[in-house]
C-alpha cells in the first residue's frame, strides 16, 4: 500500500480546492482572498483525515457545522505551498480535478509572493479562481470583485 | 503513483459495498440477494471510473438516475469474488469502511459457494448484511426477512 497514492485517490473523490473572496476594509484592495484545501468525512470513519494531517504535518480537523461530518482543512498559505501542494505535484490527481489543483497552486504561489497586494496580481488571481470548481456556486462573480477594488 | 492504492483511496471516500434483499417468487426461500459494489462520480470527471473498470476487467458504467453522476458497478458475483474483492485484500481500506468490505466478501463467498440456497446459509448472510453500512437506510429489517422465508 502506498499511502501517498491512497491520499490522492481519496482527495480525488472527496477533496475541495477552494478560493473565496470576502469584502474587507482591512485589505488595501477591499477584498480578502481565502484559499483553502479541505476534505470531509463521516465522523465514525474519519481515521483518514488524521492520517493526512499527520502525514503532511499541517491543517486542522473540526466538525462541519452543515452536517455530521468532520473536516480536515489547510488555510495557512505557507502550509498550502510548502506541505499540501507538493503532495499533488508528486502524486497528481487522475481526474480533471487536477486542473483545479494547478490553478489553486498558481494562486497560492502568487499570494505567498505578495502579488495579491497589487491590482495586477489580484486580477490574475481572481481570473484563475473563476476557472475553478465550475460546478459550484459563487457568492461574487469575477466582474463584481474586479469592478469594486478600493485601490489600483 | 501507485494506481491500486489510488483506487482504494478513492473507494474509501466514494465507494459503496451493498447487499440488498428483494422479495422473489423465483427463489426457493422467497428472497433474492443482490450484492453490488458501486462508485459514483460527476460525469465531467469520470475518468477514474473507466480506469477502475479497465484495471479490474469487469463491471458496467451507467448514468445514475437520481442525479447527474455516472456510476461504476459490479453486480456479477463471480466478478466480485474473483476481480473486485482481491483488490481490497491486497490494498485494504484504511478507514472503518474496511469492516464493510470484509462482511461483503464473506457474503459474496457464501453466495458463490451456493450456501445462500439453504436456510442456514441465508440466515448467516442476512445477519452479516445487517451489520453493514450502519448509517444507511434499509427497506427490510433482518427480522422481517428471516421471519418470512418460504422454505426452510
Task: Explain what the structure shows.
The structure is a homodimer of 152-residue chains. With 152 residues, chain A is an alpha+beta fold. Chain A has a single domain (3-144), classed as Endonuclease I-creI (Roll), CATH 3.10.28. Chain A has helices spanning 3-14, 47-56, 77-90, 97-112, 119-130, 142-146; strands at 15-23, 31-42, 60-63, 69-74. In chain A, strands 1-2-4-3 form a four-stranded antiparallel beta sheet. In chain A, helix 4 runs antiparallel to helix 5 (119-130). The first copy, chain A, is globular, with a radius of gyration of 16 Å. At the A-B interface, helix 1 and helix 2 of A face helix 1 and helix 2 of B.
Offer a quick outline of the entry.
The structure is a homodimer of 152-residue chains. Chain A is of the alpha+beta class and 152 residues long. The first copy, chain A, is 45% helix and 20% strand.
**What letter string, H or E per element, gives the SSE order of chain A?**
HEEHEEHHHH
Q: How many β-strand runs of chain A? A: 4
Main sheet: strand order of chain A: 1-2-4-3
If classified by CATH, what would the architecture of chain A be? Roll
Characteristic terms for this protein:
homodimer, Endonuclease I-creI, 6 helices
Secondary structure: elements and pairs:
Two copies of one chain form a homodimer.
Chain A: H1 3-14, E1 15-23, E2 31-42, H2 47-56, E3 60-63, E4 69-74, H3 77-90, H4 97-112, H5 119-130, H6 142-146
Antiparallel strand pairs in A: 1-2, 2-4, 3-4
